[in-house]
Amino acid sequence: MTVRDLQGLAVSGASSRSLSHFETALSLFRCYRGDPLAETDAALADSPGFAMAHVLRAYLHLLGTESAALPAARASYARAAALAGTERERGHVAAIGALLDGHWHRAGHLLEDVAIDHPHDTLALQAGHQIDFFCGHARMLRDRIARALQAWRIGRPGYHALLGMYAFGLEENGDYARAEAAGRQAVVLEPHDAWAQHAVAHVLEMQSRQREGIAWMRANCTAWTADSFFQIHNWWHLALYHLELGEYEQVLELYDGPIAGDQSALALDLIDASALLWRLQLQEVDVGNRWEVLAARWEPLAEAGHYAFNDVHAMMAFASAGHVDAAQRLLAAQQRARQGDGDNVRFTAEVGQPVALAIQAFVARRYAECVRLLRAVRPIAQRFGGSHAQRDLLDLTLIEAALRGGQLALARALCAERLQLRPSSPLARRLRTRVTTLTAEVA
């Protein structure tokens, strides 16, 4: 008899008990909470031949962009490849193989086909959505989910996750009103949906609605923090609102508490810590010895060369803390990455390494060099992944480098551009005041 999951999809090698563990793992993964890996392992302990459990296990090790997790992902891939009994399962296996080979875009395309044929496959949609994010593929963040939504109805298990992913895709494409509505609906349906919570946070960030953003994040903190492995990023979003308002004490409290206080060694968490300290540094806030502590946490990843977006944030810590050797090892790893065969070759060559060099130049007060490098990559920065909110750090660095380097005409133009996009932004107004004051002093 064919065993089917809650979405009606055939699965190979599962028992009713292992399928229950698998569904729990998927539910946890959709909310980025709990321990989906433990539930997946429980499914495999009961049914070692459960192909989709091996598939999920591989994704859980791959989608954190941790190079150290690759051996475990390869082991799960090998088991899944030997056990996949349906075309859908073989599609997942092919996508995982592409990821292991560093072909992120190909993996996204393969999962696109899986979801077209099986629009209720939440794992194909979620893994594909994450890959779109890592590749900076804004249109597919929206459209991958839009294609599937017509097959979904409220009440179907996982519907909240579709809405949350669609909300983020809409936000990254500037459709803020619909993004906010979809995200808020998703959180009503599932208050623990950390991705939907974060999609609304992005809308409020992009529209400079800081007080509303603080209220949104503070309204039900327990829901998106309880046992959530996405909570640090959501705390980072709360910190951005306070930073925009110039409330630096609150930002540092958040940094020392939920953002960096547990000393996480995960790259995704280290990124948020670097990004926040860098923004504080741009606003000339004294961060004490925090860079030194953070750089030490980045040290084991200095030579990873696995994902350019990670490398850039590691360089912020190394350069700011004066860890010259680690910075040079990172640049050497990037050079090696450029000789590879996967998509990170382009991520690194086109954006990652120029930005890492720009970060170095900024810290060394070589502002003209920093400006030159950032202006060159600015039109294509989305190619190395991240969100608009995350990549805004490049614009802020460019403005600050222009201001500090005396390129006041450029700084004035960039500030005018920013105010057009964010007319109610307190930070944009502060930057405009600075450039006006500096221009008057020169005159």
Instruction: Label the structural class.
Output: mainly alpha
Radius of gyration: 22 Å
Percent helix: over 70%
Point out poorly predicted stretches: none
Strand proportion, as a percent range, falls in under 5%
Q: Shape from CA axes? A: globular
Secondary-structure element order, N to C: EEHHHHHHHHHHHHHHHHHHHHHHHH
Task: Based on the coordinates given, report the CATH architecture of one domain.
Answer: Alpha Horseshoe
Tally of alpha and pi helices = 24
Summarize model confidence as the mean pLDDT. Answer: 97
Question: Between the first and last Cα atoms, what is the distance in angstroms?
Answer: 83 Å
Q: How many beta-strand runs?
A: 2
Order of strands in the sheet with most strands: 1-2
Largest sheet: 2 strands, antiparallel
CATH T-level topology of one domain: Serine Threonine Protein Phosphatase 5, Tetratricopeptide repeat
CATH top level assignment of one domain: Mainly Alpha
Task: Please name the defining characteristics of this protein.
single chain; 443 residues; mainly alpha; Serine Threonine Protein Phosphatase 5, Tetratricopeptide repeat; two-stranded antiparallel ribbon; 24 helices; globular
Question: Can you put this structure into words, describing what you see?
Answer:
The protein is mainly α and 443 residues long. It has helices spanning 16-31, 36-46, 51-62, 70-83, 87-100, 104-117, 122-135, 138-149, 159-172, 176-189, 194-206, 210-219, 221-225, 231-244, 248-259, 267-282, 290-298, 308-321, 324-337, 344-363, 367-377, 388-404, 408-421, 426-442; strands spanning 3-4, 10-11. It has a two-stranded antiparallel sheet with strand order 1-2. 51% of the residues are buried. The termini are far apart. It has a domain at 1-132: Alpha Horseshoe (Serine Threonine Protein Phosphatase 5, Tetratricopeptide repeat), CATH 1.25.40.
